[in-house]
Task: structure prediction
Amino acid sequence: MDFDFSAVLDSWQYLAGGLGLTILLSLLTVILSLIFGIAVALGRMYGPRWLSVPLVFYIDSMRAVPVLVVLIWIYFALPIVTGISLPPFWAALVALTFHICAYVAEIVRAGISSVRAGQTQAGLVLGMSEAQVMRKIILPQALIRMLPSLGSIVSITIKDTAIAAVIAVPELMKRTETVSGQSFRPMEAFTVAMVVYFLILFPATRAIDLIYKNIAYRGRS
Amino acid sequence: MSTVAAQIQNRKNADQTPVVEYRSIRKQYGEFVAIGSVTARVNKGEVVCLIGPSGSGKSTLLRTTNALEQIQGGELLFDGKPLPASKAGIRQVRQRMGMVFQNFELFPHKTVLENITVGPRTVLKVSEQEARKRAVALLDKVGLADKADKYPANLSGGQQQRVAIARALAMEPEVMLFDEPTSALDPETIGEVLNVMKRLAEEGMTMIVVTHEMTFARRVADWVVVFDRGNIVEQGPAAQIFDNPQAERTRDFLSHLGWDG
Ligand SMILES: Nc1ncnc2c1ncn2[C@@H]1O[C@H](COP(=O)(O)OP(=O)(O)O)[C@@H](O)[C@H]1O
Ligand SMILES: [Mg+2]
Result:
């Protein structure tokens, strides 16, 4: 069989639009997951029992359920149960964040636990409150130490956004499917998608590794 | 008057309220008694060295002073007043005490300058400019003016410990607590840290120093407290402890360290 990319490449603007949405969805997911992940980790580690117990349940259940199931549930079942229905893009953002956040929370927890107790004491003896020690001393070091793991989160997130195609969010995967259907060139269309995902992911993960290599010493106490 | 009473009266600022006073302090970790009953005082401007075998409770006593450890019995007075029970009260007390750790515990994500300014900025709400000015002066004092923008990872152990001393001094404390400040250092950098501490003592800083540097203790300490198994074996002026120890255990400990007067 011979490959013919012309039909697919003619649709490059349409695909580029999809890529833009993929990147937007990924970025928002990563940022929100980081913010909520830190909150969940802190709540789990230092919060009262009534808070930490459900948070542990949330983390464990998210790690046990495929993200696709979460997405479909939020898009199709949530409106029936609660009457709230979200547009596809927002449903995808909520589902991805809900899922990824659980992993980030565990990474944050490990990062915080890895900073040795002496650092907390060094902050406390200056007269800082526990919250100030967390914010100024422990979290910044933990975040630096977490960088390699957060790099994996970034790449997993970008890849996971492809499931949004299932609920017709017009991101890269969905548009690839459309182009593939219209051009009758599925091999070519998905080859292009694969190359594009790789070209985004590879430099992104490399960049994070590089940043980490250069500042790792700032997290080493 | 007995010699002991005379010694106590002859201590520096003996007529003033002690900076720190330990009254029958007891500290347990569960069933384990780390400190049995310790009574001692630290007067204004004095350097008090705590010596004794490792595991004898020196660090523990030091850490009760700024409430890093809770006591189970006795009373601890700072500036004549019992340590407050509230978190806010304890923070206030900690602001007035500096502490230097065996492992320096500099903040690795902050530059040398930021390590020194973070306390005054966060806790005392000193302005950025004022905090910087003070930090630069302190760095100069510990001989590290050229390292302000370096990260701790780029300093030697001795340099890191001097920064740690500057960080504690930036809070303008009334007493400095040192927990084996030179034990983690390479032999060739011990001297630079001890010199900074000696100068601090000469300036009149009140200091409580846990140390195995007997030469330093002999020369700089006004008062030496000898620990063994959670209790004080003997305390007295440095000259007495090192040149004419009264207790068998003190002699054993000193000879074990190779001290021969
Ligand atoms: N957090 C702790 N939990 C249980 N035991 C401890 C703890 N900290 C210290 N200890 C014990 O208390 C004793 C005194 O320790 P420490 O004050 O560190 O001795 P020193 O500083 O004189 O070497 C030791 O036997 C030590 O094992
Ligand atoms: Mg000790």
Observations:
- Residues B 29, 32, 34, 54-60 surround adenosine-5'-diphosphate (ligand 1) (CB under 6 Å).
- The mean pLDDT of chain B is 95.
